[in-house]
Specification:
The complex is a heterodimer of chains A (117) and B (347). In chain A, 84% of the residues lie in helices and 0% in strands. Chain A has one domain (3-115). In chain A, helix 1 (3-41) runs antiparallel to helix 5 (85-115). Chain A is built from five helices and no strands. Chain A is mainly alpha-helical and 117 residues long. With 347 residues, chain B is mainly alpha-helical. Helix content of chain B is 69%, strand content 4%. Chain B is built from 13 helices and five strands. Chain B starts with 12 loop residues before the first strand and ends with a helix. Classes of the chains: A mainly alpha (117), B mainly alpha (347). At the A-B interface, helix 1, helix 2, helix 3 and helix 5 of A face helix 7, helix 12 and helix 13 of B.
């Protein structure tokens, strides 16, 4: 195996690891945190709580936690002000996992197309 | 006479049977005051129909006197019989789903894994949204009547107009114009019941070269409609898994031992990549669309950000992201599987 190929394999494992950890985190956040946020923002729990709906909501809430301007525009200011750092931690961890994982996948696609081809 | 290679006439219509009913009931549900000639032609063309029509069957409709259609009649009968053989086990629920959302399901047959799951979800949240708007309409009527004792209020008309526009938009985004089948004007002109869902064969969502191709594509769409109800996250991943297993089986049956082992490595990695990047693609696609939409049409401006940005824009961009993520992630990871195989077996 050439060095470049070894690098490709390592990046694949990082990407997959991040993906599956992030999926696990999404379930965890959905079960423990999102319902609480819903109660603060909407006053009740949202009816549709499927995995795919969480894929839309969790990154949205994460962005609301880290960017005040966005929180204001998206009506999440109350959430931004209400929760402490400890509550926000899983959201941040999930964000980092998905940034690293997505980055790793993009590198893989680039390497496959332009470096290893 | 086979219709292979013959262009499909614009006048051939088809209807998917969604519930068990007698052939006579079916015929009367399709036509408004039909003539004896119509009746004779309908049953001659659809000779596959037994006295009791079953869900999943297809019936064709052509103008009795049209020469162009007459030339395709034998092929139409053969096509309907072939479809009958393949859709035998279709339940009433699946047949109804197929009848109502044929175009949509046909588009999804191209999707896989996370992209597929996200698309299903996109459709489901649209349905939820339609329900919400209809509830809001009901509340508006009841509130207005309780407050004023009549509906002759400017504010009521304005709000109702707004809700109807929202409903119109959601419905169009959800199913597209074509999914509703033939337009009312055309139905009235042809003497076809306005309540029935009838489609033009020429406007089939997956392009058809000839008539026999219709039975293959129809069967494919029917199979997807069966899986549709079961496809949550597990279903989506399982679909991808089945795809991988099928590829491995194909390589092990048709190819050499070497092809078989290589396929096992490649397809296992492909499955991981497809799920992984499908997930990221869906997440980032949804987030990108949702964020942009929120920043432009935020809560302060309209108060509909969750509705439009979350459901319409976020859902659509998430589905697209999931689809492309599954595709490219699968390819990239499959390449890793190939590298590992090459290293272990030194081929």
């Amino acid at each position: 195996m050439q060095t470049i190929e070894l690098l490709y394999v390592v990046i694949t494992f990082i990407a997959l690891l991040c993906a599956f950890l992030s999926i696990g985190m999404l379930f965890y956040i959905g079960k423990h945190h999102v319902k609480e946020i819903d109660r603060i923002i909407f006053g009740c729990e949202t009816e549709d709580d499927s995995f795919f709906f969480l894929m839309l909501r969790v990154p949205n809430y994460t962005l609301g936690f880290i960017w005040k301007f966005y929180a204001k525009r998206a009506g999440l200011l109350e959430m931004y002000n209400h929760f402490d750092k400890k509550f926000k931690r899983p959201f941040m961890l999930n964000l980092w996992l998905s940034v690293i994982g997505m980055g790793a996948f993009l590198i893989l696609i680039y390497m496959q197309k332009y470096v290893l081809a | 006479m086979s219709a292979s290679g013959r262009p499909i006439s614009d006048k051939i219509l088809y209807h998917l049977i969604s519930k068990p009913q007698s052939s006579d009931e079916l015929f009367h549900s399709l036509y408004d005051s039909p003539s004896a000639e119509n009746r004779q032609h309908f049953f001659a063309l659809n000779s596959h129909l037994t006295p009791q029509a079953r869900p999943g069957q297809v019936v064709f409709m052509t103008p009795p006197e049209d020469l162009e259609c007459r030339a395709s009649e034998t092929a139409l009968r053969e096509t309907a019989t072939r479809i009958d053989q393949h859709t035998c086990g279709l339940s009433e629920i699946n047949a109804q789903l197929l009848q109502k959302h044929y175009e949509l399901i046909a588009r999804f047959t191209d999707y896989s894994g996370m992209g597929y799951g996200l698309s299903m979800h996109y459709f489901r949240v649209h349905t939820y949204q339609v329900k919400t708007i209809l509830n809001e309409l009901t509340r508006l009527y009841s509130r207005t009547y309780t407050q004023h004792g009549n509906f002759n209020q400017e504010a009521f008309f304005a709000r109702r107009r707004g809700l109807f526009m929202q409903l119109d938009h959601v419905m169009n985004t959800m199913v597209g114009h074509k999914s509703m089948g033939l337009e009312l004007d055309t139905k009235r002109r042809l003497g076809i019941s306005t309540k029935s869902i009838i489609r033009k064969l020429k406007n089939h969502p997956m392009p058809l070269k000839d008539l026999p191709e219709f039975s293959n594509k129809f069967t494919q769409v029917a199979k997807y409609s069966k899986r549709l109800g079961r496809a949550g996250l597990i279903g989506s991943v399982a679909l991808d898994g089945l795809h991988s297993v099928a590829k491995v089986e194909e390589a092990c049956t048709v190819g050499s031992q070497r092809d078989c082992t290589k396929a096992k490595f490649g397809q296992t990695a492909r499955l991981g990549g497809s799920v992984g990047l499908g997930y990221f693609g869906g997440e980032y696609g949804a987030l990108g669309g949702y964020t942009l939409c929120n920043l432009v049409f935020g809560v302060e401006s309209l108060g509909t950000s969750v509705l439009w940005c979350g459901i319409i824009v976020g859902g659509a961009s998430g589905a697209a992201g999931g689809y492309y993520g599954s595709k490219y992630g699968g390819n990239a990871a499959q390449y890793t599987g190939d590298i590992i195989y090459k290293t272990i077996y030194r081929h």
